[in-house]
Specification:
The protein is mostly helical. Helices cover 71% and strands 5% of the residues. The strands form two sheets. It has a two-stranded antiparallel ribbon. Helix 3 runs parallel beside helix 7. The longest helix has 32 residues. The chain is globular, with a radius of gyration of 24 Å.
């Protein structure tokens, strides 16, 4: 037997037990018939996928239902906006850190990763206290006389965006920092010697060379946002549904396991398509076609 294959056997075994088998179980459940009393029956059916687009009326006719497509669209839109906001915030932060001394870099990177030492539930719930009525934000604005009274900032798309940006922005800062850290400072000095202004240097040198980190950070932020649960639940108040808590509700409250599994497969398909498109684009860039 090949020694390399034997050495990789434990990794393959872990992937088989913790990844491939659970995924096959989800696929199996998605193509089963939902049980009215919860769970599923071992009878092959495509009803769970049909339910994403259609409802069955009293006469057993299919009626187009765009409710779940709207949830999928909202999830994609909010995830993309979150990734874009994270890029806009993370890039100057990462650039600033990369230009500091070695000791200061260590401290600043520690501060960036510090939120990961705290439970995600605590971090998201902190924003509930900040944005709620008589919360930290409203109390502060009232203290300085800027407002007399204001509506709650919770339970809307804006609150969820704030929570997602705060939760995932470290995943954007670190890869961008890694790209900028590798940037040859002599290129920037050469641009200055050739009378290039700061804006042109940014767009002609720094951004193109930092692109791999930006793309990696966008993937690391966008993909987790697709399946986020806490932000819609706590900051959206359950009023604004996203795919993560929609799938959770199917396995817990509704107990419609087949429909929940089909939604999970749709989410997985979206992630795989996104990653495949990015991989194809990277391959074309490497081949010099783009």
């Amino acid at each position: 037997m090949n020694k390399n294959l034997l050495g990789l056997a434990p990794a393959y075994l872990v992937m088989l037990v913790l990844m491939i088998i659970p995924l096959l179980i989800v696929v199996d459940v998605a193509f089963m018939t939902s049980d009215p009393y919860g769970g599923f029956k071992q009878v092959f059916s495509l009803e769970s996928f049909q339910q994403i687009l259609y409802n069955v009326d009293w006469d057993d006719n299919l009626v187009l239902n765009l409710q779940y497509l709207k949830i999928i669209g909202r999830t994609l839109l909010l995830s993309a906006i979150t990734a874009l906001i994270c890029v806009c915030i993370a890039f100057p932060v990462a650039y600033y850190i990369s230009r500091q001394s070695a000791s200061r870099k260590t401290v600043l990177l520690y501060l960036v990763t510090l939120p990961f030492w705290v439970s995600m539930v605590v971090r998201v719930y902190a924003w509930v206290l900040i944005l709620s009525n008589d919360g930290v934000l409203e109390s502060g604005l009232r203290l300085f006389g800027l407002v007399d009274d204001m509506d709650s900032l919770l339970y809307n798309n804006g609150a969820m965006l704030v929570g997602m940006v705060y939760s995932y922005i470290p995943l954007m800062i670190l890869p961008i920092y890694a790209s900028i850290e590798k940037l040859d400072i002599n290129l920037i000095e050469a641009a200055n010697d050739l009378y290039s202004n700061r804006l042109k240097t940014l767009y002609r040198i720094i951004l193109p060379l930092s692109k791999p980190g930006i793309v990696a950070g966008a993937i690391l932020v966008f993909v987790p946002c697709l399946g986020t649960v806490l932000e819609p639940m706590l900051l959206g108040g359950g009023k604004t549904m996203m795919m993560g808590n929609l799938i959770q509700n199917q396995f817990t409250i509704s107990r419609n396991w087949s429909f929940g599994a089909s939604l999970a497969l749709v989410l997985l398909a979206i992630v795989l398509i996104f990653l495949m498109l990015q991989a194809l684009r990277a391959k074309r860039v490497q081949a010099g076609e783009v």
